[in-house]
Amino acid sequence: MALILSIDTSIDTAEVSLAKDGVLLMSETNDEPKNHGSFLQLAIKRILDDTNTDINTLDAIAVANGPGSYTGLRVGLASAKGLCFTLNKPLIAINTLDILAKATINQYPSNNDYLFCPMIDARRMEVFTALYSHQLEQILLPQALILDNASLREYLETSKIVFSGNGSNKLKDIISHQNTIYSAIKSQDKIAAIIAMAQEKYSSKNFNNLAYTEPYYIKDVFFSEKSK
């Protein structure tokens, strides 16, 4: 049995959830990106209090570890590592693109021939993205991609691709192709995905090194960018 607290402050909508054996007990959501830091600790406290959960009974802490907002990633990972260190619990770090991909795949359970392309807004016409099969296998590794009318064209010519995430809105304006599908990811979709992935990693004891785990930025970090 596993009681796992999951944290995702990596993109514009943040979620904190508590699950037991992969079943959601309670969650909190925040839609104000600049307020993720103040939201996080209060959300954790409310969830623990409202579920009558002793923080010491947690079995692990899971966190969405990027790519995404530089500030959001630091806030989420710092909180997760702090809890793990204080409570002597394992850390489970999960790629944000993997979470978004799984959340989207869950919306198309029978479309085994589709490809899935989550996109995270990275300013201007750039996105953080990757391409996945229905089995969550990475066909195109996570990368920073500047979008143009030729983006992913070679894949679109042979497969339907489901685009999702806040970065996919940029693609709608520049690519019109019969194989494009756009899917919205709701908070409950992300929560279900991170819970399932955290439970799987816990069951296989796939934990991260508490001392050396850092946010997965993809690109170099420029801390002077105040909006991040």
Description of the structure:
The strands form 2 sheets. A 5-stranded mixed β-sheet has the order 3-2-1-4-5, sandwiched between helices. Helix content is 30%, strand content 27%. The chain is α/β, with parallel strands linked by helices and 228 residues long. It has helices at 36-50, 70-87, 96-105, 153-156, 168-172, 187-203; strands spanning 3-8, 14-20, 23-30, 60-64, 91-94, 115-121, 126-132, 138-146, 161-164, 180-183.
CATH class bucket of the largest domain: Alpha Beta
Pick out the low-confidence regions: 223-228
The CATH architecture of the largest domain can be named as: 2-Layer Sandwich
- What does the main sheet amount to? 5 strands, mixed
Order of helices and strands: EEEHEHEHEEEHEHEH
Give the DSSP E fraction (strand runs of 2 or more residues): 25-35%
Primary descriptors:
single chain, 228 residues, alpha/beta, Nucleotidyltransferase, domain 5, 2 domains, five-stranded mixed beta sheet, 6 helices, globular, disordered C terminus
Describe the structure concisely.
The chain is α/β, with parallel strands linked by helices.
Architecture blueprint of SSEs:
Layout: E1 3-8, E2 14-20, E3 23-30, H1 36-50, E4 60-64, H2 70-87, E5 91-94, H3 96-105, E6 115-121, E7 126-132, E8 138-146, H4 153-156, E9 161-164, H5 168-172, E10 180-183, H6 187-203
Parallel strand pairs: 1-4, 4-5, 6-9, 9-10
Antiparallel strand pairs: 1-2, 2-3, 6-7, 7-8
